[in-house]
Write a structure and sequence with these properties.
The protein is α/β, with parallel strands linked by helices and 511 residues long. The strands form three sheets. The protein has a nine-stranded mixed sheet. Strands 2-3-1-4-5-6 form a six-stranded mixed sheet, with helices on both faces. The chain has a five-stranded antiparallel sheet with strand order 8-9-7-19-20. A hairpin with a 2-residue loop joins strand 14 and strand 15 (387-399). The chain has helices at 25-31, 49-58, 79-96, 118-130, 148-153, 168-183, 209-219, 253-269, 281-289, 315-322, 336-345, 417-421, 441-444; strands at 5-12, 32-34, 62-70, 101-106, 136-140, 156-159, 189-195, 224-230, 244-250, 278-279, 296-300, 328-334, 350-355, 367-384, 387-399, 402-407, 431-434, 450-454, 490-493, 507-510. The chain is globular. The two termini are 41 Å apart. It is 26% helix and 25% strand. It has two domains: 5-273 and 489-510, 3-Layer(aba) Sandwich (Rossmann fold); 278-454, no CATH class.
Length: 511
Amino acid sequence: MSAGKIFVGALSAETNMFSPVPTDIGSFRDHLWVEAGALGDAAIWPAPLEGFRLAAQAHGWHVAQGLCVAAEPAAPMSAADYAEVRDRLLDDLRAALPVDAVALSLHGGMIAAGVPDCEGDILQRVRAIVGPDVPVGAVLDPHAHLTDAMVKSADLLIFFREYPHTDIEDRAQRLVERLIECRVGAIRPVASVFDCRMIDFYFTDREPMRAFVDDMSAAEEGLILSVSLVHGFPWGDVPEMGTKMLVYTDGNAPLGQEVAERFGHRLFALRGTTLPPLLSVPEAAALAEGWQGAPLVLADAADNPGGGAPGDATWLIGAVIDAGIEGVLAGLVWDPMLVRQAAALGPGGEARFRIGGKASPWSGPPLDVDARVLSVVRDAVQHADGWDWPMGDAVLLEIGGVRLAVCDRRVQCVDPAVFRMLGAMPEAARVIVVKSAQHFVAGFESIAGRIAYVESPGVLSLTGDAARYRHLSRPKWPFDPDPFADGAGVITTSPGRDDHQQRGKVDVQQG
């Protein structure tokens, strides 16, 4: 066929059911909001939209860019706000018709009031608009809830493979290439899903996950079109929450079933071994106190805004301040009131500030400290992963031996440049405390003498508590020691795109 037209758009938000921070329309406007067609001839589009564009251009396809929005992870949206954003994206699709394919950037873990599966809802509506013959696909974050509605409504779902997500653009390009192959009839994707009956954390920059991910990549050859590990998102209280393997083959369901089950059982055998060792807050403070050499980077993972936490918890930072540890650089703390006070004083201003501890009981007690304002940056922006991450106004405070970066928009700390922007040199610090769980690694590992992960009483507790959930499907490890005690696996196979009369039906086979 001649060169086609592909519609691209984004609606991405990760929902933490336990977060005290609301998600609304303003959350998207604060983070990323691009109207239809506004990216135009920009040198670089935000990832993964840039990956969509590059792949389409390589095949001579025209790109119709619809609404592209993303928000920092937080609590569920209201039904009205979700419908407004969703319908704007769908209206842009209608305006772009006819199209030869649809590629969306979705998250996979988005929840709104009354809509526990936003991605499934979006994809079903897209399918209804374009009909059965137009290939529809999405690239998604692996911290997602893979649902039947998502699999049935899309021809292809491709998830980022790396955590931290260093392969966003690559996976987006792969999606568009496969959608074009669908459109010209070169492939007929069939999806197979294996439920691993577990929830865990899979850090792919280290073993044993490094070898697992490399083997996933190597498996993509011949009839195997795509292999994705869907990590699941532990703080999304929905029935489908959990780890799953998703395999697409070119019309070969038995092969897909075998590959999905093989990787799924292999992953289950690794349960409990894929999360780095966790330090308690006292252990982290003691390590920091005696640290020498290249910077010790402490990840305050339980208060990571990138997972829906407020970013104002004081447990770890307070322990470091109380211990009188010198040479510490820490951030990013979310505290709009403090930022306003410090900005009004300006560089060199001194005052007694109340820091953090405001958003929820998980935030800990506020810190009342004497501090000096070192710098103020208006409309600060953090650059990472092809995105601009707005921080709002930001300040750097000096509290004894600790320099603390505070911003008035909630965002995780992912790159050392954010400290340089405020006038601090992270390479010269003895200890760096970052409010992030894993996305900071790519930026900080080159300057770190050691990276350590800290478990504090924050919103994103990594140890798990079954009592927090009301909707979770069971059995599931670690809440149930042997979820496969019945001897059954769970394989779901979806029909290929050409089998339109069967679209929406699934076969469930016990392994």
